[in-house]
Design brief:
Spore Coat Polysaccharide Biosynthesis Protein SpsA, Chain A, alpha/beta, globular, 561 residues
């Protein structure tokens, strides 16, 4: 059969669309980086100034022989004791430990962070560090709610409570709300112990439990918000259980929303805790690209981008204006982000504010996460396709940008199909002949490799990993588009508080069964390899060998990754 190059041209167009999108976002992100360097946000400049003084402060503390530290600890302890006696500050927050819908209020005063008699709170230098922002608060700080939705998070359920109680903000203007849907008794006891410990230390903590999981994570946050709706909270920060927010998180984020009344949410950058395995390394590269390029570029351009579900702050008014959290998709974060955008709100991504978290350390956990992340956007396409078109609050360009945001999922799905069809097309439908179509195909297929070189020299390995897992993601997309039952279940991604050494989840790898989809694709590429050898097409021999080996490894992923 003679080659006319039509297949290669078609494939090249798909790769070109994918490559142009990557290059555009990459260039915009570089420009945004340069702008932020020369004209940094206020909080970024404050952080830089603080880092310049860090060494001098460390030397001063060391020279003091620990006296200042001991004095500070004593003052903090005294403040906590005064707080527990209700003698300082304003006890305007009801602290509730709620097991079955019955509230048990206990007032905790404003001395959790060492308040004085006037309710002024010493924040270990943070107040001084951000002193130039004080006028934005109009004499007092806005009330902030920190929500911690969780469900059987055995490894992190208590840790996140203690971590969030270290976030510094005037105590009488802050409440940490634990929305615990856990069903395992051991997990519930760990949560109870952590909440009681933090209450005894003088922190404002509220534990809320439901007798069902209606609405999953979205339902838990709606329930939590309803319990404090009359307490005047202006902002709500959200953290998943495995995150480690820095102490200055609220100081670094809320100010941006105070400066812009039209800002619906602030999203911060994720960083990661694990020592790298192949699996966590590939996830890190992909997420680094997502935050450093995609989120940064879209935020800079004022385009739609989604809240990532955690490590961010929402304006309560914006949530209510868009209709609140809804649970008819498994990506309630992206759904609400789109609805506030269609209502005319804008959002901000802060690359300089980092929040550490744990990546899924087993392939089964990773696939659970990715199934939700890929099926959910397809549910939104079904739900909101018409809503985007009929929105009166955004321009035509904004609508096209929203549509393209979701079209990108389909473009990558086509890329994975190209990888699947390449061998039979070259062997039987359109034999390889050097010329413009095939050269165009090779160049367009490798542009993405060049872009990812900015993040890793092993960009070929990363893209191979992405393509191999792409078929599972394609199945997730199909499930979401068709509304299959599997796409409607909200499964928590299993985390182990792992440090990369195997951790508590090593036993999973000992008993894991091969993944059927990847095993079937291994058989497919093994057959294609046999044909390639038979026809002596050595380029395809190399390609099919790599693909067959990759699918074999992934099919036994928890043994090898």
């Amino acid at each position: 059969m003679e080659s006319n190059g039509a297949w290669y041209i078609a494939f090249s167009v798909i790769f070109t669309i994918y490559a142009v999108d990557l290059l555009f976002l990459f260039i915009v992100s570089l420009f945004a980086t340069a702008v932020e360097h020369f004209v940094p946000p206020l909080t970024t400049q404050a952080n830089r100034d603080a880092r310049r003084l860090a060494k001098a402060q460390a030397k001063a503390l060391k020279a003091s022989g620990g006296g200042a530290k001991a004095a500070h600890k004593g003052a903090k302890k005294a403040g906590g004791k005064a707080s527990s006696n209700g003698s300082n500050g304003s006890a305007d927050l009801a602290i509730v430990v709620d097991a079955n819908g019955a509230a048990a209020p206990a007032a905790v005063a404003a001395g959790a962070l060492g308040a004085d008699a006037d309710g002024k709170v010493g924040l270990d230098g943070l107040e001084e560090r951000f002193a130039h922002l004080r006028e934005l608060y109009g004499g007092d700080y806005p009330k902030v709610l920190i929500q911690l939705p969780m469900y059987n998070e055995d490894a992190h359920c208590d840790l996140i409570i203690h971590r969030c109680c270290k976030i510094q903000w005037p105590a009488h203007r802050l409440l940490v709300q634990v929305c615990d849907d856990s069903t395992r008794e051991a997990v519930r006891k760990k949560v109870d112990a952590a909440v009681i410990a933090c209450l005894e230390q003088g922190h404002n903590v509220q534990l809320v439990r439901r007798d069902n999981r209606s609405g999953f994570k979205a339902g838990a946050m709606v329930d939590g918000m309803a319990r404090v709706e009359d307490q005047g909270f202006e902002y709500v920060a959200i953290f998943d259980a495995d995150f480690e927010p820095p102490a200055d998180f609220l100081y670094s984020t809320v100010v941006h929303m105070m400066r812009d009344d039209n800002c619906a949410f602030v999203q911060t950058r994720w960083t990661f805790t694990e020592a790298p395995t192949l699996l966590t390394w590939a996830q890190k590269v992909g997420l680094d690209f997502h935050f450093a390029v995609e989120q940064r570029a879209r935020s800079f351009l004022g385009h739609f981008f989604n809240f990532n579900g955690t490590a961010g702050v929402w304006r309560v008014k914006a949530i209510n204006d868009a209709g609140g959290w809804e649970s008819d998709t498994v990506v309630e974060d992206m759904d609400l982000s789109l609805r506030v955008y269609l209502r005319g709100w804008r959002s901000v991504y802060l690359h300089d504010v980092e929040c550490r978290n744990e990546l899924p350390s087993t392939l089964s956990a990773y696939k659970t996460q990715q199934f939700r992340w890929l099926s959910g956007p397809m549910q939104i396409v079904r739900k909101s396709f018409a809503n985007i078109f009929f929105s009166k609050e955004i321009s035509l360009l904004g609508k096209l940008n929203c549509y393209w945001f979701f079209c990108r999922y389909f473009v990558f799905a086509l890329v994975t199909l190209v990888a699947l069809l390449a061998t039979p097309i070259v062997m039987w439908l359109d034999p390889w002949v050097w010329g413009f179509p095939t050269i165009y195909f090779l160049v367009s297929a490798n542009v993405a490799v060049v872009v990812y070189l900015y993040f890793t020299l092993l960009s070929y390995v990363f893209l191979l990993f992405s393509v191999v897992l792409g078929y599972f993601k394609l199945w997730a997309m199909i499930s979401g588009i068709l509304g299959l039952k599997k796409s409607k279940s909200w499964k928590v991604t299993l985390k182990f508080a792992a440090d990369g050494s195997g951790g508590n989840g090593s036993w999973l790898r000992q008993y894991h069964k091969p993944y059927a989809l990847e095993m079937a694709l291994f058989v497919y590429y093994a057959v294609m390899l046999g044909f390639s050898i038979w026809y002596c097409i050595w380029g395809l021999v190399a390609y099919n060998s790599i693909m067959a080996l990759s699918f074999l490894v992934v099919s036994f992923g928890d043994y090898f990754l």
